[in-house]
Design a protein that fits this description.
The complex is a heterodimer. By secondary structure, chain A is of the alpha+beta class. Chain A has helices at about 30-40, 60-70, 85-100, 105-115, 120-125, 135-145, 150-155, 165-170, 175-185, 190-210, 210-215, 220-225, 230-245, 250-265, 295-305, 310-315, and strands spanning about 5-10, 45-50, 55, 70-75, 270-275, 285-290. The longest helix of chain B has 21 residues, at about 315-335. Classes of the chains: A alpha+beta, B alpha/beta.
């Protein structure tokens, strides 16, 4: 491969906005700026070609250099006669040799490769390099990431948003995607909870025909979101609870009926009545704890007293 | 063939044909290749080669359904119905898997999560299958044995090409204390004509509410077509079964399901009914994402579901009891209108908990064998010879 010797180029002579070979997206520059200040640029940037230099590798170095006022950077030039597709493939390999692309970068790679290669070629030649299964379904999903709201992409890039949320976000319309993204960025739930929240919201939009934005404007939700942000865990939990009740009304009714019946039993705080999973079936459990024979006796007496009130007992199975 | 009979011939054909190299020279394989002269058979050593090809498809499952793979069954042909967990009452039927995969395309079909790429595989080592049948019946000597196909495929959708009924129906008709159930959502019954089932073969149709059938059961016969086929199969001497599976909850479900129940009794003589089963929608949790991708207009996955003891998603018990109880009432009312005693009504719940049985029928089977016995009786009492 023909390369020029290393030489200094003026930073103003290279423009990172000409980005057809750019892959990196949303990565912070601060650490790079610090290292440039301390040591200068240790690795030359790669440009194509001498006549009209365009960055192939080194976008972030050029951006950081401009931000800290570095006048020049070491650079090497690729020979002009190369094919554009070859130059992009080279840019990709250089990127992959030092970085692991996050989901947004994967999406950028797929879309840029489409300018030069067929879908099947991309699947066969490039997906293994990206560590992805050569599946058309995964291809479509990755490609769609660039259509998500900017804030969602930024959250995917820095790890705040679970990549497993992408299919759920994709199912929502533009406005719902934005509303759902803002909700997740406000409540900051765990990654598995993010997926659950998006799934339930989407289900409700289709089942009840309500937009996410409308759902989130409901007074009950607004009341939760108005609470002090200092109580974020409680806020999160309250919202998830509301969402579950809304998503599973029949189950919620069974739960309420069980709780009413349990109150009728008037058990002390050390005795627990446990319903069957999801209130399915007729088998319940009583669990109690005790610290000495006296307490054990008390618990048994309590249950014995309860046995004398069949009408209270029956409520559980009604 | 007249217009009426034409309605019972299915035109569906695969678009791509794969043949496992090791079975290519079997006479049955050669018959099948002759039945599909428009397709060039692509030789492969294993299913994995086909999966690699399907992986590149935009809609791999849809492409897989249009492929037919002729192969040797490396496993057993007969398996006890996978009732899966002891908490659920099961009919304990012996399932014959001669074809795995289905060219019909029901949105709710569990095969989408069960079979990679929904590839349709037809096993051609039929001699092994018949030997296994002999061994099975020998091991169950003295017991009634119900066998069904159509667990991992539709029993009749490809029968105009593979002609399996031509082999199976006479095989069961000549034996005692056995029955064969062919389950379908097609009207492809022409291959069944003149096979003389002698009361030992039940053709059963999976039916649904009219709108569910139209919206969710793609490439299947219309409900009308299924009922017409049922009437014809009854006239040819087959016993008839109906499966409401999956029952789906939607606004207006009562009216539509009640109407389908009535149509059963308008179509067949109640005394020739082998059974009616009721099963609520249940599915592997992974199905939801597949349905969202393949059938974005489908809405059934947005119902209220909870994980059951077998890991499948189901409606909460309260809702299942409501659905089953209403269905039971409608079936009871039709049965009694025909002047038949309720104790002879072969109505059962499919893969349901004992608790739901009790809430719906007022009593639960004591064990799985109870359900099986009731169904055995239903077939045996009506066997003609």
């Amino acid at each position: 491969m023909k390369l020029s010797p290393i030489r200094q180029v003026e930073t103003r002579a290279v423009d990172p906005a000409r980005d057809r070979f750019r892959i990196s997206w949303g990565r912070p520059l601060e650490a790079l700026e610090r290292s440039l200040r301390a040591l200068g640029c240790l690795q030359p940037i790669l440009l194509w070609s001498e006549r009209n230099p365009e960055i192939v590798s080194g976008f972030r170095r050029v951006e950081a250099a401009k931000r800290i006022g570095l006048d020049s950077l070491p650079a090497m030039f690729l020979a002009e006669e190369r094919e554009e597709s070859e130059v992009f493939t080279l840019a990709l390999d250089l990127f992959l040799s030092t970085e692991r692309p996050h989901p947004v970068e994967q999406s950028i790679i797929v879309r840029k490769l489409e300018a030069y290669f067929s879908r099947d070629e991309i699947l066969e030649r490039f997906f293994p390099r990206l560590g992805l299964n050569a599946s058309a379904v995964i291809y479509r999903r990755i490609r769609a990431i660039r259509d998500l709201p900017e804030r969602a992409q930024a959250a995917l890039a820095d790890g705040r948003l679970n990549p497993a949320c992408v299919p759920s976000l994709e199912l929502l319309c533009e406005a719902d995607r934005r509303a759902a993204t803002e909700l997740l960025l406000t409540l900051r739930p765990s990654k598995s909870a993010q997926k659950e929240i998006l799934e339930y919201l989407h289900d409700l939009t289709l089942r009840d025909g309500a937009a996410v934005e409308e759902l989130l404007k409901e007074e009950a939700v607004q009341e939760i979101l108005r609470r002090q942000p200092a109580n974020l865990p409680q806020q999160r939990e309250a919202f998830r609870q509301w969402l579950k009740e809304r998503r599973f009304p029949v189950l919620h009714r069974s739960k309420r009926a069980f709780e009413e019946a349990r109150r009728e039993w008037q058990l002390d705080s050390r005795t627990r009545l446990v319903p069957p999973p999801f209130y399915e079936g007729k088998q319940y459990e009583i669990r109690f704890s005790f610290r000495d024979p006296e307490e054990f006796k008390k618990r048994l007496e309590q249950l014995e007293r309860l046995g004398r009130h069949p009408e209270r007992l029956k409520k559980l199975w009604e | 063939m007249g217009i009426e009979k034409q309605a019972f011939v299915r035109a569906s054909r695969p678009r791509r044909l794969f043949v496992q190299r090791s079975v290519r020279t079997l006479p049955y394989t050669q018959d099948l290749l002759r039945a599909l002269p428009e397709l060039e058979a692509e030789p492969v050593d294993s299913e994995a080669e086909i999966h690699t090809l399907l992986d590149r498809e935009e809609a791999p499952e849809s492409a897989g359904k249009q492929c037919l793979y002729l192969a040797r069954n490396p496993n057993r042909f007969f398996k006890l119905c996978p009732g899966l967990v002891p908490e659920l009452a099961c009919c304990e039927v012996q399932v014959l898997n001669s074809t795995v995969g289905c060219d019909l395309d029901c949105t709710y079909c569990f095969l989408q999560t069960y079979l990679p790429y929904s590839l349709v595989t037809h096993f051609v080592n039929l001699d092994d299958m018949l030997r296994e049948l002999d061994a099975l019946l020998e091991s169950r000597r003295g017991q009634f044995t119900r066998v069904c196909t159509g667990e991992l495929s539709d029993s009749l959708s490809l029968d105009h090409l593979v002609h399996l009924s031509r082999r199976l129906v006479p095989e069961f008709a000549r034996r005692k204390r056995v029955s064969l159930e062919l389950k379908t959502k097609t009207a492809n019954i022409a291959p069944l004509e003149r096979l003389e089932p002698k009361g030992r073969v039940i053709v059963s149709w999976t039916v649904n509410a009219e709108s569910v059938s139209r919206r969710e059961e793609l490439r299947c016969a219309s409900l009308d077509g299924r009922f017409r086929a049922a009437a014809q199969a009854q006239a040819w001497g087959y016993r008839i079964g109906f499966h409401f599976d999956p029952i789906i909850h939607f606004a207006g479900w009562e009216e539509e399901y009640r109407r389908t129940v009535e149509r059963i009794f308008d179509t067949v003589r109640p005394e020739s009914l082998a059974w009616i089963s009721l099963g609520c929608l249940r599915f592997d949790p992974r199905l939801k994402a597949i349905v969202q991708r393949r059938f974005p207009g489908s809405r059934f996955v947005y119902g209220e579901f909870i994980p059951g003891p077998d890991g499948k998603m189901r409606y909460p018990e309260a809702l299942r009891v409501e659905l089953f109880s209403k269905m039971k009432e409608w079936v009871y009312s039709q049965w009694q209108r025909a002047g038949l005693p309720l104790e002879r009504l072969p109505l059962y719940l499919c893969m349901e908990s004992y608790s739901v049985w009790e809430k719906v029928f007022g009593r639960a089977p004591r064990c799985r064998a109870d359900v099986a016995e009731a169904l055995d009786d239903s077939v045996e009492q009506n066997t003609w010879c």
